[in-house]
């Protein structure tokens, strides 16, 4: 997603952005965005958001499920004096246990580390024939948001 800066009030830290379809919105920019004075009307703000889920199945008996959920957070930001930019990401890992498989519906029910269960539809139902109740599923969920301000096009 990208938008063009149409107005800036440095005292109030309010920035007005115009989207590609002409819609405008005004947002408050937190003081943690230390490079706001480098932003000028006409600059382009680019935002990217990524979400990913990765999983791996382990046969039952190939290690015990744990009740632990691991979370890592990473953040970076532009150096002082540069155009604002940065990224923040979070990765969460946990192990779930297969509680039920419904081949007719193409679903699997997973029990999470805190005992909660959720039924999900398999992207490829043929894969459900390769697993059985009691198998473990190691899941990694990752989210990343990045923002970059570029000088106005010449």
What kind of sheet is the major sheet? Answer: 9 strands, antiparallel
Overall pLDDT confidence: 93
Q: Label the structural class.
A: mainly beta
Rg of Cα set? 22 Å
Q: SSE order in H/E notation?
A: EEEEEEEEE
In total, the number of domains comes to: 1
Account of the 3D structure:
The chain has no helices and nine strands. The chain is an all-beta fold and 154 residues long. It has one domain (2-150). Strands 1, 2, 3, 4, 5, 6, 7, 8 and 9 form a nine-stranded antiparallel β-sheet that branches. Strand 7 and strand 8 form a beta hairpin.
Short précis:
By secondary structure, the chain is mainly beta. It has one domain.
List keywords for this structure.
154 residues; mainly beta; 9-stranded antiparallel sheet; 9 strands; 0% helix
List the helices and strands and how they pair.
Layout: E1 2-9, E2 14-18, E3 24-28, E4 44-58, E5 70-77, E6 85-102, E7 107-111, E8 117-121, E9 136-150
Antiparallel strand pairs: 1-2, 1-4, 2-3, 4-9, 5-6, 6-7, 6-9, 7-8
């Amino acid at each position: 997603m990208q938008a063009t800066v149409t107005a800036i009030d440095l005292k109030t830290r309010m920035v007005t952005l115009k989207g590609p379809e002409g819609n405008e919105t005004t947002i408050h920019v937190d003081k943690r965005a230390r490079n706001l004075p480098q932003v000028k009307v006409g600059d382009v703000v680019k935002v990217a958001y990524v979400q990913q889920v990765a999983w791996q199945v382990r046969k039952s008996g190939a290690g015990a499920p744990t009740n632990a959920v691991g979370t890592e957070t990473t953040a970076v930001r532009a150096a002082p004096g540069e155009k604002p930019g940065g990224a923040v990401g979070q990765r969460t890992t946990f192990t779930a246990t297969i509680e039920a498989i419904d081949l007719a519906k193409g679903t699997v029910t997973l029990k999470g580390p805190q005992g909660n269960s959720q039924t999900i539809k398999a992207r490829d139902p043929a894969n459900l024939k390769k697993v059985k109740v009691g198998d473990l599923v190691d899941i990694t969920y990752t989210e990343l948001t990045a923002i970059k301000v570029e000088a106005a096009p010449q």
